[in-house]
Amino acid sequence: MLRKHISIFLILMLAVSLAACQFGPASTPAVELTQPPATQAVDNTQPTDAGFEVPATEEGPAIAPSSGEIILATTGFTMETGLVNTLISDFTRKTGIAVKVETRVNPNQVLELGSSGLADVLLSHAPPAEASFEEKGFASERRLVMHNDFVIVGPPNDPAGLQGSTKIDEVFQKIFNARSLFATRADNSVINRLEKFLWQKAKLKPAGDWYFETYRIMKETLGIASERGAYTIADRVTYLRNKNDLNLAILYQNDLFLMNYYHVIVINPEKFPNRNVAGARQFAEYLVSPEAQQIIANYLMSDFGEAIFFADGDKTDAELGLPEASLD
Fold first, then answer.
1. pLDDT tier at 323 (50, 70, 90 boundaries)?
2. What confidence score (pLDDT) does residue 67 get?
3. Torsion from C-alpha of 226, 229, 235, 236, nearest 10 degrees
4. What is the rounded CA–CA span in Å between residue 282 and residue 231?
5. pTM of the entire structure?
6. How far apart are the C-alpha atoms of 202 and 2, rounded to whole Å?
7. Is 280 exposed, middle or buried, given 0-12, 13-18 or 19+ CB atoms closer than 10 A?
8. pLDDT on residue 327
9. Was domain 69-148+260-316 assigned CATH 3.40.50.300?
10. Which of 65, 135, 166, 320 could crosslink 69 through cysteines, CB 3.0-4.6 Å?
């Protein structure tokens, strides 16, 4: 009888421990893009998620996947257009390596999965945080893959007069000065974090009835902005997919601060020897291969008549002025 009670107790403890290790599921927006400006230096204080902090579980134990599987951590935002699933299918067909995807709301949470040894490879879009992750020794390699961008949309009559603006700070200053309606998602998503950063960058603190929360995903936020005649920030794909049902126009785009750069990061096997680093490296090599880069460059172009993603596998962070890890 005593053994039976001990066995039950151990099983319950194991179940509690496993439950405590789980992360919450992700729900995020979609992706989108516009023609990038000429290469120029980036203000390294610019992008979102700049302050990656190593979680307390930085070297926690991880369950090793089979040699025929890798675990990819990325944001739900990254997954929504279907591009990553297309790339994964092509990769698996060519290599026989299955890819299990773990999604989180924002890149910091993706990096936390990596620093906890819970993924083999990451696809992230927060260069400063990634550079910090690399400096802390969690990455064995980090490579530029692609970029997309965001746009500022609003009523076609443009009551705040955004058209003709030359800087993103000017755009937000005009909205603020006019107290024009602005819809914020207020959900800590990738786009919401970028929006908050842009208000901060312009040294503005939006508040009042004109600045209202939707607590909705991108498509629904666009619908609300359209109904109320408000401005908002959106990813291009979601806007393009729904623009026929919206009374909204793109009023500002092609700004360096609206670019969204993606890197593939392979976990450092010295920290996490049980991870499938060999498979992760194959996946990283695939993403920057000519075949994958062509898929990226052509994705959804026939649907929208313009490029949605831009292939950057032949570029370096230094070329684009992106923050790099200062490894000695």
1. confident
2. 67
3. 70
4. 43
5. 0.76
6. 67
7. buried
8. 67
9. no
10. 65
Look up tokens 């194991």; give the residue.
14
Per-residue confidence (pLDDT) for residue 62, from 0 to 100: 40
Q: Read off the tokens for 107.
A: 């890149």
Residue with tokens 């200053």: 173
Nearest C-alpha neighbor of 219 from the set 203, 241, 189: 241
> Given the structure tokens 């666009």, which residue do they identify?
222
Q: CA 293, 294, 296 angle in degrees (round to 5)?
A: 65
Closest of 70, 87, 24, 37 to residue 269, by C-alpha: 70
Tell me the C-alpha to C-alpha distance, in Å, between residue 6 and each of 3, 18, 19, 282, 321.
5, 18, 20, 45, 59
H helices of the chain, in order, are 2-20, 76-79, 83-95, 107-115, 127-135, 168-178, 190-201, 218-228, 236-242, 277-287, 290-298, 301-304, 317-320
Residues 6+ apart with CB under 8 A from 297: 307, 309, 310, 311
**Fold matches, 69-148+260-316 and 150-257:** yes
Distances (CA, A) of 223 to 42, 81, 142, 247, 251: 32, 19, 37, 9, 17
Lowest mean pLDDT among 59-73, 135-149, 238-252, 310-324: 59-73
Of the candidates 143, 95, 96, the one whose C-alpha atom is nearest the C-alpha of residue 122 is 143
> Which residues does 278 contact at the CB level (< 8 Å), separation at least 6?
67
What 3-state class would DSSP assign to 294? helix
Kindly list the domain boundaries of the chain, sorted by start residue. 69-148+260-316, 150-257
Mean pLDDT of 2-15: 37
Fold of 150-257: D-Maltodextrin-Binding Protein; domain 2 (3.40.190)
Q: Which of 101, 79, 74, 72 is nearest to 29 (CA)?
A: 79
